[in-house]
């Protein structure tokens, strides 16, 4: 049981290390694309041609780019907040798992101690019983074999 507990403990430490790497990556890269975690799925297979030279599209394209640029910072904050919440949830789950592993290890230690004490008690009991039987048998044999007594 100790081997599996130590293995799980090392895995917890490895996952915690990965969480730290993810957190540092998020901090280093605030310019992450807003398209990640976007709710509307855009297909890359759609080939829609838009002409920049077309006067009707030009105004709409410039407006679209401007509106996207103004919303980028807010979207990054949302992504960052969502990612941080996810990381915190995973960290809480890891701490809960660590607590459970500690309780299992404590219970295992208690059970081993009980088994050890039980084994000692059985050895003491059987050892004294054998000694008493041996003494009684020896005394009985010496009385029956010795005609002088």
Evaluate the radius of gyration. 38 Å
- Range of helix content: over 70%
Work out the number of β strands. Answer: 0
Strand content: under 5%
Average per-residue pLDDT, rounded, comes to 71
How would the global form be characterised?
A: rod-shaped
Helix and strand pattern? HH
DSSP summary: helix tally: 2
Distance between the termini: 61 Å
Question: Any low-confidence stretches, pLDDT <50, length ≥5?
Answer: 60-67
Largest sheet: none
Secondary-structure-derived class: mainly alpha
What does this structure look like?
By secondary structure, the protein is mostly helical. It has a domain at 2-33 and 54-116. Helix content is 79%, strand content 0%. The protein contains two helices and no strands. It has helices spanning 2-28, 55-145. Helix 1 (2-28) packs antiparallel against helix 2. The chain is rod-shaped, with a radius of gyration of 38 Å. The protein starts with a helix and ends with a helix. The model is unreliable at 60-67 (pLDDT under 50).
């Amino acid at each position: 049981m100790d081997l599996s507990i130590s293995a799980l403990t090392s895995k917890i430490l490895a996952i915690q290390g990965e969480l730290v790497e993810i957190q540092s990556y998020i901090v280093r890269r605030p310019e992450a694309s807003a398209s990640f975690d976007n709710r509307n799925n855009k297909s890359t297979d759609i080939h829609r041609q838009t002409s920049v030279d077309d006067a009707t599209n030009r105004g709409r394209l410039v407006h679209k780019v401007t509106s996207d640029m103004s919303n980028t910072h807010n979207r990054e904050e949302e992504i960052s907040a969502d990612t941080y919440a996810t990381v915190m949830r995973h960290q809480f789950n890891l701490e809960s798992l660590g607590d459970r592993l500690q309780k299992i290890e404590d219970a295992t230690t208690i059970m081993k101690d009980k088994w050890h004490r039980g084994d000692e008690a059985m050895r003491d009991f059987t050892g004294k019983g054998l000694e008493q039987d041996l003494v009684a048998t020896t005394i009985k044999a010496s009385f029956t074999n010795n005609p002088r007594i």
